[in-house]
Prior knowledge:
Oligomer: single chain
Shape: globular
Distance between the termini: 51 Å
Number of helices: 7
Family: Belongs to the UbiX/PAD1 family.
Keywords: Flavoprotein, FMN, Lyase, Prenyltransferase, Transferase
Enzyme class: transferase
CATH topology: Rossmann fold
Order of helices and strands: EHEHHEEHHEHEH
Organism: Piscinibacter gummiphilus
Catalytic activity: dimethylallyl phosphate + FMNH2 = prenylated FMNH2 + phosphate
Amino acid sequence: MTQSPVRPARVVVGITGATGAVYGVRLLERLRAAGAESHLVVSPAGVLNVFHELGLDRGALEALAHTAYNPGDVGAAIASGSFATDAMVIAPCSMKTLASVAHGLSDNLLSRAADVTLKERRRLVMMVRETPFNLAHLRNMTAVTEMGAVVFPPLPAFYHRPQSIDEMVDDTVERVLALLGVSAAAPKSWNGL
Length: 193
C-alpha cells in the first residue's frame, strides 16, 4: 500500500486596512520559509495600508504568497469548504472585517474565506487591531470566539527583553504560527523566574 504524500500546511492569509501590515507580511515570509502553502486575499484598504506602512505595492505583496486572490472573486477556491486548508489568519484584522465575520456577512472573499474556515471547524486566528475597544468591538470579538475563532491582538511580550520592533513582531508571528499548527514555529517561551 502506498502512502499519500504529506502536503505542506495550507494557510489562508487575509490582510485588511488596520494598522500592523508588518504582521501579515512577516507571516507570509515565515510561512514560505516553513514550507507552508499560503493563499492571500487583501482588502483594498489593506493594499493601501501595506504601501503606506511598508512601501510594498500589490505586486510585491502578492509575490510573497503562493496564490493571491482578488477580494471580489467570491468564486475563488478559498470560498469553498471543499478546498482543504489547515487554517486562516487575518493579520491585521480591522474592526470592519471582524464585524463582517461576526455577523456572517460573507460580503467579499476575505470574510467568505473566514466564514468557510469557521463552518469547516478549522482554525481561524484574527489579529484585531484597534484601541481602545468599544462595546461593539467587544461583542463582535465574543461572537467570533463563540464561533471558534481565536482573537489574537498582536500585543508584544516583554519578558524576553526585545531589543527592536522587529524582535517584537517576530515573536508575535511565531506565536501565531504555533497556534496555526505550523511545525516550524519557534515562539520564545517563559521559563519562569
